[in-house]
Amino acid sequence: TLTRVRKRSVRIAGHRTSVSLEDAFWKELTAIARRREASLNTLITEIDAGRDGNLSSAIRVFVLEEVRRRT
């Protein structure tokens, strides 16, 4: 289901880390990366560079803001 939280491994600035995200957020993040013609790691690195707190939360906020921009 889209509400299931999964831990996923990503590479940020050359090091591996993991993020825990619901499938719905991961699916939309993947779509955003595709539209921008960027890899997921590149997009997550950009989100990481501008965050103040938890990376998973920063990704959720980023996805929410992108969805709001499109509507």
Write out key terms for the chains shown:
globular; about 70 residues; about 55% helix; two-stranded antiparallel sheet; 3 helices; alpha+beta; 2 strands
Mind explaining what this structure looks like?
It is built from 3 helices and 2 strands. The protein has 71 residues and is an alpha+beta fold. It has a two-stranded antiparallel sheet. Helix 1 (23-35) crosses helix 3 (55-70). The longest helix has 16 residues, at 55-70. The radius of gyration is 11 Å and the shape is globular. 11% of the residues are buried. The model has no long low-confidence stretch (mean pLDDT 94).
Per-chain topology:
Elements: E1 5-12, E2 15-22, H1 23-35, H2 40-49, H3 55-70
Antiparallel strand pairs: 1-2
Helix pairs in contact: 1-3
Global shape: globular
Largest sheet: 2 strands, antiparallel
For the secondary structure, the number of strands is 2
Lateral arrangement of strands in the main beta sheet? 1-2
**Could you give the order of the helices and strands?**
EEHHH
Multimeric state: single chain
Low-confidence stretches: none
Mean pLDDT: 94
Number of helices: 3
Short note summarizing the structure:
The protein has 71 residues and is α+β, with helices and mostly antiparallel strands. The chain has helices at 23-35, 40-49, 55-70; strands spanning 5-12, 15-22.
